[in-house]
Amino acid sequence: MRRPLRYLPLAVLSTLTWLLATGPVATAQEASHLITVQQSGVLRVCTTGDYPPYTLREDDGTYRGVDITLATDLAATLHVVPQWIPTTWSSLTDDFLARCDIAVGGISDTPARRVVADFSIPTSIDGKTPVVRRTDAADYATVDQINRPEVRVIVNRGGTNEAFARTNFPQAQLTIWPDNLTIYDQLEQHNADVFVTDSVEGRYRQRTHPTLQVLHPDTPFDSAPKAYLLPKGDTLFNTVVNTWLESEIRTGRSDQLLADWIG
Question: Half-sphere exposure of 61 toward its Cβ, with a 13 Å CA cutoff?
């Protein structure tokens, strides 16, 4: 059953009222995910479930993570329930376009993704940095040290990690791994030497894998905003999401959730 929009929180309702008063109301309502979400009572959320601290799928099928908590809060703000839609990094864009209202989980804002979708305001800024065995920390700190024929680089398939590795380590031995969860086991078992990923993930993983170390997380190789994937050109829905998200950031809730995960 459709939830009355008047019961939305004041900041979101004020933004929505302004949009409806100043834009092409009928067209916006008919096209917007906000209307279909309200009518269905469900917010469809694409997420990979393999990228803690942002998104993690447990063995029982439940999801945890910073972005999972925030997406749950967004659904509550809209007076609907979240529905988690499993996806992978290689199929993320296609799954989002076909099946979801929003995609979350440490997603980098890239030009390629912006061709078919919009992004929310950034939830954080992060960059790529090496994760290695602690005993090898001095050997793989720079791009030049990693980009050598004898170095075994491992990377998960389909996302910005793979794109970064292919661009920056053409001389290294590159293994494309099918998931982002067991890749750290490959480092511990000496089947690979280095995995370059976002520094926040590295910080979290060195807590769960104490023999590993993330190198120079405060000075990564590059920098990119993390944000939520939103429907292309959906001003109504996207402005409501951004209004809510700005409040979460300003109050420090998003930072506190991240700190709870990585310490």
Answer: 3
* DSSP letter (8 states) at residue 116: T
Which helix or strand (DSSP H or E) is residue 93 part of?
helix 92-99
Q: Report how far residue 143's alpha carbon sits from residue 129's, in angstroms, rounded to the nearest whole number.
A: 9
DSSP state of 189: T
> Whole-model pTM?
0.84
How many whole angstroms separate alpha carbon 263 and alpha carbon 261? 6
Work out the burial of residue 167: count CB atoms within 10 Å of its CB; fewer than 13 is exposed, 13-18 middle, 19 or more buried. Answer: exposed
Cα(first)–Cα(last) distance of the chain, in Å?
41
Q: What is the DSSP letter of 236?
A: H
pLDDT digits (tens, 9 = 90+) for 91-118: 999 999 999 999 999 999 999 999 999 9
User: Are residues 223 and 127 in contact, defined by beta-carbon separation less than 8 angstroms?
Assistant: yes
148-168 pLDDT per residue, tens: 999 999 999 998 999 999 999
Strand, coil or helix: 128: strand
Identify which of 76, 30, 54 has the alpha carbon closest to the alpha carbon of residue 228: 54
